[in-house]
Amino acid sequence: MKFLLTIVNFVTCYYNHRKLSKYYLPNLDLFKDSIHPGPRIAFLLFLMLIGAPNPFTKLFSDNYFLTKMGQFSFGIYLWHPMCIQIVLNNSKLFTKEFDAILCVLGLSVLCGYLFYVFIEKPMMNLGNYFIQKVNSIDFYKIML
Fold first, then answer.
1. Do 15 and 28 have their domain in common?
2. Confidence class of residue 56 from pLDDT cuts 50, 70 and 90?
3. CA 115 → CA 41, 72, 75, 119, 125, distances in Å?
4. What burial letters (b/e) apply to 42-61, b meaning 16+ CB within 10 Å?
5. I need a labelling partner for 30 at 20 to 30 A (CA). Which of 46, 68, 77, 118 fits?
6. Within this chain, do residues 83 and 118 fall inside the same structural domain, yes or no?
């Protein structure tokens, strides 16, 4: 049923865009005319999400490395600009651009891991503690 609703929703959006939108360009082919990989990645993500879980999504969900990277991804997202800046400020240390990219990746993952272990995970535990305390209060008795 979920798969059917997803397909109906996609077809409805596609029809509305083609027939009702003034921004529709019939000669534009996103896959052929775009040099950016965004439309292709979005299409792959769409295929992943319909009817999940499927063999394609299991490639990602059963992978230990990608699962761990998913835990650290917020920290990696927050810290990667600083890691890029650190490497750019010390660019004389790198003879090849590939070495600098590897250093940024390694530094970003390390900072993301440390952020997860020392900040994100303790804050999630603290939030869960407060949620349990709030849920244990019987507000009906307080109101009487």
1. yes
2. low
3. 28, 8, 6, 5, 14
4. eeeeeebebeeeeeeeeeee
5. 77
6. yes
Same domain, 98 and 86: yes
Residue 128 shares a structural domain with residue 69:
yes
What is the DSSP track for 85-121? Answer: HHHHHTGGG-SSHHHHHHHHHHHHHHHHHHHIIIIIH
- What's the domain range around 107? 64-143
User: For the chain, what is the domain count?
Assistant: 2
Mean pLDDT of 51-57: 65
CB neighbours (10 Å) of residue 86?
14
Query: Is 3 in contact with 51 (CB distance < 8 Å)?
Result: yes
Q: Kindly state whether residues 115 and 57 are assigned to the same domain.
A: no
- pLDDT tens digits, residue range 127-143? 999 999 888 877 666 66
DSSP string, 9-36: HHHHHHHHHHHH-TT--TT--HHHH--S
